[in-house]
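Re: beginner question about structure tokens

> Can someone show what the tokenized structure looks like for a real chain? I only ever see the sequence side.

Sure, here's an example I had lying around. Input first:
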Amino acid sequence: MRIDLHCHSTASDGTDTPAELVLGAAAAGLDVVALTDHDTTRGYAEAIAALPEGLTLVTGAELSCRVDGISMHMLAYLFDPEEPALLAERELVRDDRVPRARGMVAKLNELGVPVTWEQVERIAAGGSVGRPHVATALVELGVVPAVGDAFTEEWLADGGRAYVEKHETDPFEAIRLVKGAGGVAVFAHPAAAKRGRTVPESVIAELAAAGLDGVEVDHMDHDADARARLRGLADELGLLVTGSSDYHGSRKTVSLGEYTTDPEVYGEITRRATGAFPVPGTGGA
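And the corresponding structure tokens:
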């Protein structure tokens, strides 16, 4: 089995629609794909309707969190999307995305960059607006050559000249909410140092004690040393180890299925989840 447990669609900051994502996953030879858009479940219905026979969909979300001033992401799998407490928190985070993005546009204007809110809205195309949409606007304007080049202190990285904070969930609260909704919680790309400050291993140990299920180890932003270190830590703490592409369509260079999760780990995730079940493809609507 080939299993990719971290992918984004146009429901947040990917460039493939949910339907295009699942069709692309099947074409890439995947057996299981997870839809994990930022703080939203809006893409589920379209992805399920288009799900081809032979491909299984894992529903999920990537939750925006912050601990000790450090931004981090929590992958939540197979939770009940209508559970009130987690739903309210996702909406709180999502509602803060628009004023935050508007604030980044204003800061860029002050820096002499002629980006407009209308441009960012067009790029987001109704998705959950985020920094990658603002970064894409900078690419369109020729300010930076690629989306990743916007995530520096000069522009949009944490603490950068055009950075604006948003509401982010405490990760210990996120774990409590995900578990309360019957889901499974995995720390996304915990050693992605090029994105900014990373959470120390002592905090990961505390998260494990609070119920964290796993850590995403095989990821494009982790080098060989980081992967080895995280595997050792996961073994020490009894955490599951996942691998995922973190696919964003044309917004990143990584391909669907470039990094995958062991079938035994996937099986354990499905055994632990009580909020939802993986959806087997039946050939689309």
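Each token stands for a local structural state, so reading them left to right follows the chain. The mean pLDDT is 95.
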